[in-house]
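Quick question, first post here. What does this chain look like in 3D?
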Amino acid sequence: MILQEPVLLKFSPEEEARRNSFVYDNLMGIIDALRERRENKIKKWRKLKDGTPERPQKTFPWRGASNIVVQVVATNIDTLLAQIMASIYETTPLWPIQIVGDWPTEEEQDEQKRAVEEFLTLMGTEKAELDLYRVESILFDGAIGYGFSVAKVPWITDFESVCVGEYRGTPTYRNEKTKDGPRPEVIPFEDFGCTPTATTLDEARFKFHVLPLSKWDLQERAFTGRYDKAKVDSILHAADRPSIDQVKQEKLTDQGVNISASEYNQTWFIYECHYKYWVRSGGMLRKLNIIEFYHLGTKTSLRAMYNWYPENQNIFIGAQLGYSDRGLYEQGFAEMLEHAQIELTSEHNRYADNETLANTSVYRVDPDSATRLDSNFSIYPTAVVPFRKDEFEVYNMGRASSTGIEREQQALSLVQQRTGVDNGITAAGSGIVNPRRGIYSAMGTFSTLQAGNRRSNLRSNDMRLAHVLLGQTFLKQYSEFGIGSKLRYFGDQGRFLTKAFDNIRSGRMRIPVKAATGSINREIEKQSDMLLVNILRQHYMAIAQLLQGLMQAPPPMQDYLVNTVIASDFLMRHILRNFGYDDINKLVPEPMLIKQFREQMTNANKQRTAGGAAGSLTGATAQNVPQQPILPTGSPQQGAGAGGTGNIAEQPNIPVPLGGAPRVQ
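> Answer (accepted):
Ran it through. Tokens below.
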């Protein structure tokens, strides 16, 4: 049974004190362990990612010297992000649904699968629903830049009162549900923390999300009952900061936004904690999954409840740049390319300053000639100067260097080798099935897609895994909590969607985690379909010819033809499964004649197992009687003439010619 509303914790005062101490100790331990990353490193990484110079203006080797930052980090992040977003959003559906096992035809599994895929794609692209393009752009950008980024997927239901008129001087309202569904949001790097030694978010014993709330936010939550009103009143005098935290303030300052310290901007840091907690209840030890809103400054629990998501679902989804023994906090491009960007920036600025110096000239003038110069005298192309020979000389201050650009190109090449990121130019066909240009095979194209940007594809798969996990989270919540009025979008297709959600809850349908990116999968699927059309057409024609010949063949030949049909169907089913098709029964139907043959073989085997005394044929003679299918009445038979069919005791009806002995081997 799924909770539709959260259930608050109700422990004894002694247990509450122990739990409060447990939460406080875990928060302090994680904050201390991650302080360097959350407060210092993230500020340095953001400057590298934004391409911010160390100083607004350089004074060495002279004031106004070259101060360009070669944006190695940002360029590689944007290039990889573009490839990832294209691989996800340039193909539909956003999430392919996999059907587990073979289903009977009346289940209409293909229609269910298509309905779920269209529903998730619609929800994902709707700005008023999941707004997934924006969310995943921020999520993947953070994961590539910093190595780790987290999105939270809470189920949010919200109402607003709409004034619809006035009755006897009093406004009348209608309550409308403005939000009802999952609302994913990316958590800023410095606002998330979890057990540092955990290898995955699911394994993290303690997780928290820092909610910076204003006085108005706290009072609103107390008014609506989300937080305990008395406890909110007790912390209003203890604001954590007179303004937002320092990390965010520096980030906004770079954007030209300055939030001053004032009563209006006072901030309270409320920690939304998700953790596992052991307690003895009803004489048994129970491992509970708890969600709690906690004010660390005053050690006040504003609200604590049981995890009310399906099967204690973890609503934090992480995206990582690779997976190694570093655990959750992988190395992002900002950390990976920090020294390369600094070195390239220094090299570029040295080369630019050298060029400036090489273009700078010094004039030497005979002191005795200075009387012919005034303060407005200047040198420019085609200028005429009133000097005698050797009275005016020009000297160059610097020496031009031609190796700067080569060194920069070499450094950029090393950066590319380290990141594995290159321009996405490998989406071209390959392989030959026809000498004409432009006609390619599916495997040839797949090989080309695999060969190019292999490490880039690996990084894309890292992000696609997070995309799939998000889809699985959305699908689980929609199937358990329902979709409400959204069902009306789909008209007659809504009944398939309702069936599909029932099957998702039972585990018969799911979103698979695939290694390849969406664009590769879609390309392979399209070309595979094109190739299989002709193969299936040939198979259907071959089976039809065998069935037609079956009517005319003698009984020993009929047995061979039937087994040939079965073997051909078996091979075709095996091929279709290798190509990734789910419901094989619809693509390779079993003829009714073959079904009858299978039933007769089963019945005959049961009769032989029961014993040979039931019939007149026993022993080796009975074992040699061929088992043949019942052919339709009136089918032409070899040797039957116009008479009809005979029947052998305890055997399937086998056509025999009139006037002759039964065909018994």
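Residues 35 and 190 are 9 Å apart (CA to CA).
The two ends are 64 Å apart (CA to CA).
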